[in-house]
Design goal:
With 459 residues, the chain is an alpha/beta fold. 38% of the residues lie in helices and 14% in strands. The strands form three sheets. Strands 1-7-6-5-4-2-3 form a seven-stranded mixed β-sheet, with helices on both faces. A four-stranded antiparallel β-sheet has the order 10-11-13-12. Helix 2 packs antiparallel against helix 9, helix 10 packs across helix 11 and helix 10 packs parallel to helix 12.
């Protein structure tokens, strides 16, 4: 007769939340003397991250907050590969080159121009690299023409991202900012003409501004620079910051000239982690022709057995988001990106109609060309409204515009692919609820100062 082995009965179950780590303080600013188990470490951090906002309700950010499970699987599979290590991971370099080629052609670069490009951490790095190339090219032109040292300048509108100011300060370039005016929140061509001179390394234009989601007049700027070149002999390049619009405009308005079809557009940056639909961070920098990237800026490094060319501000970086970008380009194709862009724009225009229909909000501009809706009200404290909406989980920013329009306080909704028509209706409904709540708390105001005071009380 076979005897059965008795299995000891466990009187207590060791649960994660029953560990000592949950009843004693964990050091926040020092490495603890003793570690904790992996499940405990995960749970502690996981629970703390619940205090963050819900990415699905984050209408403030252009940055992608949703990807397909297959893309996430690829990200996990490639996040341990160093993009710079082409000797050990040669296929990652091949895929990076493929994406550069795809984007260059999307932006109408021609084969005979021998376009070049690189992946970056985001558009900030891409912009700095592009402007560095233009500064070097300007300096070489002065040397070629026998001119002495002089301080270079850069002409942009007040609608640019802060990275343009960073570049000017970090790399000793005078930044000439064309200010905004009430009712005009993009770059004014004639004022740019008055600001450029022989020391201008570049004019910057934005395709999808951070403040209002509008387009700078790139074609008009190009025409003006061609006139200046013909009249004064100054060959001043255009760099287009297409961080937000670079994955939208080619599919929404394919005939609209803003890219390498224009003679003076020499470099373009675009954010893959915005409407390229990739998690942060990945950006791309494309030059129309390799002659616009001075050879002095390219480093050739003998790294782990192979000679590699590198043009980045950093060195080591993960390859996962580059692979994820390639996945999206293959997965969606032109028709997929077009469908996404048109859906986002249709929902943005629907939101704009609903907001105007409330009779209390005004759009900063009636022509919504990108899926970004910016609006204001003379009767409502937008800061208080933003704070009240946060109580329902919505993240809708409120902010004032730059100099010359700084007394204009607006709100912004970035409509991404996962923001459906149904969610638009829910947002508007919650805005109506928030306004009723604020009215009951006397949160309607006639002035900005009073609004800020009420905002403080409500929050």
């Amino acid at each position: 007769m076979l005897s059965k082995k008795r299995v000891p009965v466990r009187k207590h179950i060791s649960a994660t939340y029953a560990t000592r780590a949950f009843v004693r303080p964990i050091p926040r600013y020092e490495v603890p003397e003793e570690g904790v188990g992996p499940d405990v470490a995960y749970q502690l951090i996981h629970d703390e991250m619940n205090l963050d906002g819900n990415p699905a309700l984050n209408l403030a950010s252009f940055v992608t907050t949703w990807m397909e499970p297959q893309a996430e699987k690829l990200i996990v599979e490639t996040m341990n590969k160093n993009l710079v290590d082409q000797e050990e991971y040669p296929q990652t370099g091949v895929i990076q080159a493929r994406v550069v080629n795809m984007l260059a052609r999307l932006f109408h670069a021609r084969e005979e121009h021998q376009f070049v490009g690189t992946a970056t951490i985001g558009s900030s790095e891409a912009i700095m690299l592009g402007l560095l190339a233009h500064k070097w090219s300007w300096r070489k032109r002065r040397e070629r023409d026998g001119k002495g040292p002089s301080r270079p300048n850069l002409v942009v509108g007040a609608d640019v991202h802060v990275v343009w100011e960073k570049f000017a300060r970090y790399f000793d370039v005078e930044l000439r900012i064309i200010p905004m005016e009430k009712g005009r929140y993009t770059l004014e061509v004639e004022k740019v003409r008055g600001a450029i001179d022989e020391n201008t390394i570049c004019v910057g234009a934005v395709l999808g501004t951070t403040f209002t989601g509008q387009l700078d007049p790139v074609e008009e700027l190009n025409d003006m620079l061609l006139e200046v070149k013909a009249e004064m002999g100054l060959d001043i390049p255009l760099h287009v910051d297409a961080a937000s619009g670079g994955f939208l405009v080619p599919f929404l308005y394919p005939e609209f000239p803003w890219d390498f079809r224009l003679e003076q557009v020499r470099s373009i940056n675009v954010s893959g982690h915005k409407y390229g639909l990739v998690y942060p961070g990945v950006g791309w920098l494309i030059f129309k022709d390799k002659r616009y990237l001075p050879e002095d800026l390219i480093f050739y490094v003998n790294y782990l057995g192979s000679q590699e060319a590198t043009y980045t501000l950093n060195f080591s970086r993960g390859s996962a988001m580059v692979i994820a970008q390639y996945y999206n380009l293959l997965r969606l194709g032109k028709r997929g990106y077009e469908a996404m862009a048109k859906n986002c724009l249709a929902n943005a225009r629907y939101l704009a109609e609903r907001l105007e229909g409330m009779g209390i909000f005004h759009l900063t501009h009636r022509d919504v060309v990108l899926p970004v809706v910016t609006f204001f009200s003379e009767a409502v404290d937008v800061y208080g409204l933003s704070c009240t909406l946060r109580g329902r989980g919505w993240i809708v920013p409120a902010y004032n515009l730059p100099k010359n329009a700084e007394d204009v306080n607006i709100m912004r909704v970035v409509v991404k692919e996962n923001f459906s028509r149904d969610m638009v209706d829910m947002l508007v409904s919650h805005i109506e609820e928030a306004l009723a709540k604020m009215k009951g708390g006397k949160a309607f105001t006639e002035g900005t100062k009073a609004g800020n005071q009420i905002h403080t009380k409500i929050c």
